[in-house]
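Researcher: I'm preparing a figure for a lab meeting and need a structural model of a single chain. I don't have an experimental structure, so a prediction will have to do for now. The sequence is pasted below. Please return the structure as tokens so I can convert it later.
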Amino acid sequence: MPMSVGGVTVQSPMAQEIQNIKQTAEQTIKGKIKEVLDDPEKNIREMQQPSPFSQFLDIRV
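Model: Understood. Here is the structure written out token by token.
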């Protein structure tokens, strides 16, 4: 798949790899956006979970 860099069409294995990485990143981002739109409370629920490190921060006065 050719890739345009600065108006110049480039066809190389590296250009194809960059295009594949770009497509994978776009799919991942779209998936994350869809996840948030489908369940907006999920992020809040995850933030409200106690941290596994909280047991180390148990300071007694």
